[in-house]
Amino acid sequence: MKKYVFIILAVLVSVSMFGCGKKNIPEAQTQEAMSMEALNALNANLTAPAPVAETKPQVTQPPTLVEKKTEAMPASTAAKPSAKEIQTALKNAGYYAGSVDGKLGPKTKKAIEEFQKASGLKADGKVGTKTWSLLSKHLNVAPAAR
What we know:
By secondary structure, the protein is mostly helical. About 45% of the residues lie in helices and about 0% in strands. It is built from seven helices and no strands.
C-alpha cells in the first residue's frame, strides 16, 4: 500500500514540476510579420481573374476585396429597432396608447400582438424582421386614431 502512495505522490510532484499541457507561446513568436509587398502579392493572387478561354474576350474584372460595395439599407429596417421606435410606430398605427418610454412592458407586448394579428402574422409579441418590415412603415407618419 505504501508503495502505491509513493508512486502516486511521485507522479503528482513530477506533473506539478514539469506540467502536462502545451506550453503557452505568445502569438507574436509563432507568426512572422509580412511585408506590404507580400500582402499586396497575396491580395493580387486572391483577386486575380480566372483564366478565360481565348475565344471569349474578358469583359469585366471581378472586384477586389476592397472594392466590393454593399447597398445601405434604410435606417428603419437596417438594424434591430429600439423600444422607442417600436412604441412610436405602434402608437402611430393606432395600436398603442401608452407613453413612449422605451420600455417593452405588457402594454407594448399586447399592442405588438394586436398589430401582428391584424397584419396576418403569427402573434407572438416579438418584433422580428417580418413584423418590423410592416410596422416600420408607421414610424414616421402622423398618429392614427383608433
